[in-house]
Amino acid sequence: MSVATEFRQGTEPGTDGTAWKTVHRVVFPVDGDTDTLPLYVDFDAARRVVESEEASSKRGAASPMVSQRSEMRSDFILGRRELSLPAHRRVSFGTYFNAFPASYWRAHTDVQQVRLSIEVDAEATVIVYKSSPRGSSNRVQSLHVTGGTTATCDLSLTTFADGGWYWFDLVAHGQDVKLKQADWSVPQPEGFTPGSLSIAVTTFNRPDYCVKHLRTFAESEELLAVMDRLIVTDQGNQKVRDEQGFDEAAAVLGDKFKLVEQGNLGGSGGFARGMHEAVEGGESTYVMLLDDDVVVETEGVLRAVNFADFTRSATIVGGHMFNLFERSVIHNFGEGINEYRFQYQPMGEGQSAHDFAASNLRTTPWMHRRIDVDYNGWWMCLIPTSIIKEIGLALPVFIKWDDVEYGIRAKANGYTTVSLPGAAVWHMPWTEKDDTIDWQAYFHQRNRWVAAMLYSQYEKGGRLPIESFLQDVRHLLSLQYSAVELRNRALKDLLDGPSHLHRTIGGKLPEIRKVRSEFPDAQVSKDLTEFPAVKRLHLPKFGMVPTRPKNFAQTVSSALSGAIRQLRPVDPAAAQHPEAVVPAADARWWRLSHLDSALVSASDGTGASWYRRDNVRFRKELLRSLALHTRVLARWDELSASYKKELPNFTSPEAWRQTFAANSGSGAEQQKPGQ
């Protein structure tokens, strides 16, 4: 038997004087959903796949994928923690939600060992595995278990410096076996005090989702035991309090629920209010920021709290995001900042939009390397209230980059963010829309520049200015004049300095919506029969429709020819009939720059817009963009110093308190029974 492993059967934890705390329970989906089942149970007979050295040496090489060959058996699931395994069958719990992320505990806590406890009702074999950072699995030990006892296994965490997980497989012998419960626990240090949390949800016109949140939390006894308060900040005109079922759910939560109504200050304003309420309440060790339109795995909330309780110092603990429409697909495993470009991006390669139904944890090598992040999205993110007290509330930017900036700010103040495997929600995917060309284009542009002025280590923001200008050029070549108008307004406001952030947060959205609505490319019609018939005015050269450039030379050639075309007068007939129908997926500069007008599908499939080339608008917006970028660069040092100096002020509770008061909305603050 390995010196790092000790098996005991029929022994209650703590008999050696050590107190053990359960931090990670083995759970199953409450509805037996076969779409999510691969995240909990692995029925595949395949053990592992290790990436070859040749493949790993190639930049961008995809990880090996092994299809799941076994059927999903939701009939095996008996309840939240119970599973029935027929005789002579085997299943693995080497899955996203039920394997233990050993390397994350090794890296961020002082915990040296973890205990696996399993209770079954009949004779079975439990086989424990560990993985290396390369994804290779190693059999640690097997244990013969019988019914009526709890088997425990103590496992060392000392070998997980760079990555790796623990998990177990369950094998039934000659009769059916019920797994009654299984969990992972760690030793509690002397004087250990568990933390508690407030959950802060910000919402805008999604009352149905919010009531689901209330019901979800009200039905979880384990979560209620650690939750001080559920704070819902309602910023919409479709009130949560008017939704059917609200009163009943709120009554169950009682004094653990608080409803706040205020004007629409965006995600940053809503989450800032939740942070503020949690800190002012004075009860909670942590506040968890949670999107309104997510489906929550409550066990993940508990795991985030448990993990935070054991970290060496105050740590932000984030959860992952799965696709609400493809429920076994994860958004990505970790996010960071490319400081030279000052743009957020996935950490590591091959880990975006990964489908666990196609390749589960045991057969996905890159997933066994620990991924260290710069920030975590605020779809699910636990923040210690001690950090909030020290570094302030959210950046007052309405939407976009607020979560990214907070992670960077925390890092600059010596605090770590961890995206913890096994803690996650399901959220609508970004792929269903392109928010860089709608009203959010303003916030994408301004907030990225604000963050860069606060934290960029490169002179004049590194590559950001040239990327920003080229992005404007791409939009103009794509006939997306509304996006460039909003991006130019963003730079103009940026030049006003930090004082504009709080001053405009409550009124900027109506302003930019009004401006955008005046542009043809922003006017979406759901009835495609409203548009005139398509008539091609100019035949494509050699009869070939432009395609994506394959190399740098083709990119330059296509861009130059497209730009020259933009400067020419527009054929009047283009205002009478669109020249082509262009799907949203093909609505790129290399296609649209060679047309005078086109019907372009909306990215969410709800309708289409009639894009029309405007050579006068092209010149005006291009020159304005060039002038604004030049002005910002000329004043970079001055503006950067100003934003840095004012950061503690415009993220302070005092500044936010004034903004809350000025945007109290129609409902002000309301509390439910028990308060």
UniProtKB/TrEMBL annotation:
<dbReference type="InterPro" id="IPR029044">
    <property type="entry name" value="Nucleotide-diphossugar_trans"/>
</dbReference>
<feature type="domain" description="Galactofuranosyltransferase GlfT2 N-terminal">
    <location>
        <begin position="75"/>
        <end position="186"/>
    </location>
</feature>
<dbReference type="GO" id="GO:0016757">
    <property type="term" value="F:glycosyltransferase activity"/>
</dbReference>
<dbReference type="Pfam" id="PF13641">
    <property type="entry name" value="Glyco_tranf_2_3"/>
</dbReference>
<feature type="domain" description="Galactofuranosyltransferase-2 C-terminal">
    <location>
        <begin position="471"/>
        <end position="661"/>
    </location>
</feature>
<keyword id="KW-0808">Transferase</keyword>
<protein>
    <submittedName>
        <fullName>Glycosyltransferase</fullName>
        <ecNumber>2.4.-.-</ecNumber>
    </submittedName>
</protein>
<comment type="similarity">
    <text>Belongs to the glycosyltransferase 2 family.</text>
</comment>
<dbReference type="Pfam" id="PF19320">
    <property type="entry name" value="GlfT2_domain3"/>
</dbReference>
<dbReference type="InterPro" id="IPR040492">
    <property type="entry name" value="GlfT2_N"/>
</dbReference>
<comment type="pathway">
    <text>Cell wall biogenesis; cell wall polysaccharide biosynthesis.</text>
</comment>
<keyword id="KW-0328">Glycosyltransferase</keyword>
<dbReference type="Pfam" id="PF17994">
    <property type="entry name" value="Glft2_N"/>
</dbReference>
<dbReference type="InterPro" id="IPR045699">
    <property type="entry name" value="GlfT2_C"/>
</dbReference>
